[in-house]
Automatic annotation (TrEMBL), chain A:
The chain crosses the membrane at residues 38-58, 70-96, 117-138, 144-170, 231-255. It comes from the Bacteria. Pfam families: ABC2_membrane. This is ABC transporter permease. It comes from Hyphobacterium lacteum. It is a multi-pass membrane protein.
Amino acid sequence: MAGRFKIAIRDIRQGLSKFELWTSLAQDDLRQRYRRTIFGLVWLTLSYLIFIVAKIFIFGAINPAPLPWFAAYVTVGFLVWQMVSAFVVDGCTSLINSETWVKGVKLPYSTYFFESVARDIVIFAYSAVVAVAVLLFTGHFPGLVALSSLAGILLIILNGVFLQMLLGVICLRYRDIAQIVQTGMRVLFFLTPLVWTPDQVGPLADFLIWNPFTYYIDIVRAPLVDFELPLMSWLISICLTLLLAVLSVSVFSVFRNRIPYWF
Amino acid sequence: MPSIKAQNVSLRFRVYDNADGMISPKGAGQISTTQGAKRWVNALKGVSFDLSDGKRLGLIGRNGSGKSTLLKAIAGLLPVTSGHIDVDGEISALIDIAHGMRIEATGERNIILRGMIAGLSKADAKARVLEIAAFAELEDYIRMPVRTYSSGMAMRLNFAIATAFEPDILIVDEWLGAGDRIFQQKAQKRMHSLVDRSGALVLASHDLALIEHQTDEALWLDAGRVEAAGASGDVVSQYMKATR
């Protein structure tokens, strides 16, 4: 077991050092997705903008909060959700989609995890432009506390790496898990305070403590929208990250040798 | 000096797709079942060899006998079930044309990606593009997506890339045959020069003349076991006698 753990850690370290490679692979993934389009990656910004405007006006109409505040709340919340959900959903295919590479060239498997995370960070960055614009437009000028949002984003990215590792390995072996996860994320979108606020749902809000995504959203959104540092959410998010780290590195260590046989 | 040492290597893998039946073709790795309905393929069984004196090893045997599996195991792409493979030197493997390539990306882009995989920086990999493209003789196709290539062209590119970054050990599976006559001669010349530079070569092929001429030693695999090993000429003639 100790030997396997060492091999897994070496895989992660070597993968990390191939920074130029996985950023290039991620770049190619995105280029391929928007191949022969006129706007290219700007589509990410455009579609996010259109989506968010529709959400603000529809859900804003049934929310008692002032519209400028609600607009910032939805835009930032959905931006973070989009990245978190991409990490979860793409995690399921981080290895499955790299089949020809895993079978053809000897690389640390973690290269594919980093590739997947890098791709989702780029998508996040293109959407974040809209969020920054909405924040400024609605008078939410970020203060010093906003720096903690950046730290929150970094923590979520770290979780993203672990999610690629855990889900990438598990979904490769058990192909049904990917379907379960995708369905689950669609349901969780409605169970996370993104387009509604906890005060709108009455006693149902008590159940939110069981939704881990609530805390990850909160550590980025609260400083930007309410100018406060949500200490409880930070504490829970850090604990969840540690839990996920142990789980994912364990799964990767134990099953790393089986990966090429599971395609 | 690059070397490969395989000690009592066995490799079996589980087949997860629903399958039924236990009979495998003559000479191919046997299917077995354990613990109820789990199905396994015994691809390699107790394979040993030592490639340090003879620098060029040939693999022959019937379809499914374990040649490609052994190549993949040497290349570190498939972990073995038991035994050891100790490899000294950087390996470059040409096992499947479709693998290790991005077919939507251009030939040029693939050269850069594979250069980085071989350990070069992006800038160094970029600097090698022209020379590798020239060897593959793809002209302006090098700026087209690989999916537009014929299989021979894809093979040429893959061969040019695999041999460009000075590997110590080159592993080549059958498909070198996809190139046209002129390119095959060129490819053989390059393999020679690589071996002359104190590199090693492992070649699997059904072309027995190729094995005889290009390799010093050979392994004849049958159902995952070593049926015969020794000087290429001897092993090839034994194999020919047995398969007449």
